[in-house]
Amino acid sequence: MSAGAAARAEAARVLVAVLDRGRSLRAALARALPRLADARDRALVEAIVFEVLRRRLTYQALRAALLERALPGRVREVAALLLAGLAQLEGLGMPEYAVVDATAEAARQLRQPHLVGLVNAVLRRFVREHDRLCAAAAAGVAGQCEHPDWLRRIIEQDWGGQAGAVLAANNVPAPQWLRVNLRRQTAGQCIQALAQAGVPARPSPHCESAIALYRRSAPGALPGFADGGFSVQDLAAQFMPRLLACAPGDRVLDACAAPGGKTAHLLEHEPAPAEVLALDIDPVRLRRVAETLARLQLRATLREADAGTPGQWWDGVPLQRIVLDAPCSGTGVIRRQPDIKWHRRESDLPVLEAAQARLLEALWPLLAPGGRLVYATCSVLKAENERQIDAFLLRHRDALALAFELPLGRRSGAGWQILPGEGEADGFFYAVLERRTGRGRTGGVHAGHHA
Question: Minimal CA–CA distance to 217: which of 236, 204, 203, 230?
Fold first, then answer.
């Protein structure tokens, strides 16, 4: 058995789970990786799978050109194995000697020994005819930009001349961002400690708590993680506390709290709120919030509940601050979760938009006069972001959208949009809504001060 055949076989199984069976990439990897003892094999599986999902259309076009006819469904794992082989040779730039034999032998691990020769022949032909095949494949999928047509169309409609940059950024690996616990250390001190452990990192010029690793690492293996020195969180999400602007004594609701990064950051930030209630409808995900807070030695009230039905959990005492990181399409984090491109459907959008509106309507009456609600999504679609907020403001005369600026992104309706790749951050949208008293002007007014 060639070295690495088991890793290639696992990559093929993950691809079938994600592309054919609709399983999330995270879930498929969580099942597959523990079967590999060698960390290098686990890293290879991840690299292969992410590369295939980022450039699925190209690798499928190459596979089709190399096969006289499509493989039958009963050998779909070998069909996925061919995508894995092409991704190693092309996108990952691995040499032929390191790829072909091991990938072909993986067919044997997939219980298809009669197809070992086919895999070998296809990959060797790709190496021989590389330039011609790649040129033809690129011409065939160029207009789609490695996105499904419906998603590419909406991004182009929403972002015009910026759409090309958004689509391109979605196909580039994201850096691993950490949020430094500024109550315990500065970003510089954290970078120095990581460097001493052989893990180089760099600060962000846009956020004092954010640092990026030069190479990906398992967080639990990094010095300082276990005792709460830092957490994993993208740069774009780290602007939340400054927008919420808590004051001492504030009661804060984190309406959709899992996996706990927002709740923890609010409690780490100065000034910290007096009380944070963190809700999540999923008990498994809520346990992750509890684990996060325990590691950071922070306290919040956790409750398994649907934020959209306050009668089941609200004590009737008004809240000064609400964070609504709403369920969304996830189109701002495709570079980090490339399976989103292939799992999301256009028909999902009205359902998500309705859920966002339901949560806004349910939570707004809980806000004290003068209180502030920060609405956020990791989406780049205007229907979930600026149009969602514009519609809310038209329905609520007591809602005022506060004007603010962030060091990344641009104004988008009554809110602010960061696009994927800007400052190396994920795509993220924020709007800051203040509840006024009495009869005011129709919503959509921008306050003159900065959050």
Answer: 230
The CB density around residue 141, as the number of other CB atoms within 10 Å, is 18
Bridge partners of residue 210, in order along the sequence: 179
3-state secondary structure of 430: strand
> At residue 380, what is the residue type?
V
Hey, CA dihedral for 123, 126, 127, 128, is it positive or negative? positive
Q: Is 405 exposed, middle or buried (0-12, 13-18, 19+ CB in 10 A)?
A: exposed
In the structure encoding, which two tokens stand for residue 107, read together? 């067919």
From CA 37, how far away is CA 58, in angstroms rounded? 31
Task: Tell me how far apart the alpha carbons of residues 318 and 338 are, in angstroms, rounded to a whole number.
Answer: 40
Question: Which pLDDT tens digit goes with each residue over 68-80?
Answer: 999 999 999 999 9
Residue-wise pLDDT tens digits, 314-367: 999 999 999 999 999 999 999 999 999 999 999 999 999 999 999 999 999 999
Tokens of 100: 């072909």
Catalytic residue numbers read: 378
The secondary structure of 196-260, three-state, reads: HCCCCEEECCCCCCEEEECCCCCHHHCCCCCCCCEEECCHHHHHHHHHHCCCCCCEEEECCCCCC
Let me know: does 239 contact 192? Beta carbons within 8 Å: no
pTM of the full structure: 0.93
- Cα(130)–Cα(137) distance, rounded to whole angstroms? 11
The span from the CA of 176 to the CA of 144, in Å, is 27
> For residue 251, which phi and psi values (nearest 5 degrees)?
-100, 130
